[in-house]
Amino acid sequence: MYQGDTRVFSFSVEDNDDDPIDLTGVVITMTIKKQRGATVPSIYTATTTSGAIVVSGAGVNTVTITIPATSTATFPSGALVYDIEFVLGSQVVTYITGTITVQTEVSL
Fold it and tell me: How many structural domains are present in the chain?
């Protein structure tokens, strides 16, 4: 990703038979940090409750995460780590985790 660009990530959640999993009532959170660890401060957090993550689609199983340009402009360049957690009641599942590489913006 480039600093200062709007980023939109979208994916569908399905079971092993490719049937949609209804995400109604699930709270989804994406957290981005410089490195893994509970005490490391977050660079960015998006949630379904804040509206930065939207669940939609016929099967209520399409997740769309939008990170605005105003947020990515403040991201440090280099490798950042992220995870996406799903919470329903007392059940917490880390659905996706990975690395995002941030490139310094040329046009400031």
Answer: 1
